[in-house]
Amino acid sequence: MARNNVRTIALDKVLLGDNRRFASASPVPQIGAAKMMVIIVLLAGLVFTGLLFTWSHLQYLELSSQISQTYNDQKELHNLNRKLRIELMNLKSLARLESLATENFSMAPPESHQVVNLR
């Protein structure tokens, strides 16, 4: 029975840390509350700066996309304007108006007594 009792004491010494063989050579350094607050504030600032940078980069990408889309819309509108000006010139052409007058409205060029000169 005494032998069983010795093992219990040795096990207690190991569990309680009385055995110097397992003790660490240097104690674990402790950080004070003030240093911990400084570290937390610095980390929060770093996270905030990262989020701000990310947000600004996303804004940049969105605005450049809008500028590109607006530029494409402007090119399309310029092309449409050019086509409409060509169509307007065709609609106003003298040859087209003369052919419409003679074919659709049975008009003819005026005779000399129908012309009135204004001074």
From TrEMBL:
Keywords: Cell cycle, Cell division, Cell membrane, Membrane, Transmembrane, Transmembrane helix. The chain crosses the membrane at residues 36-55. It is found in: Cell membrane. GO terms for biological process: cell division. Pfam families: FtsL (PF04999). It is a single-pass type II membrane protein. This is Septum formation initiator. The lineage of its organism: Bacteria, Pseudomonadati, Thermodesulfobacteriota, Desulfobaccia, Desulfobaccales.
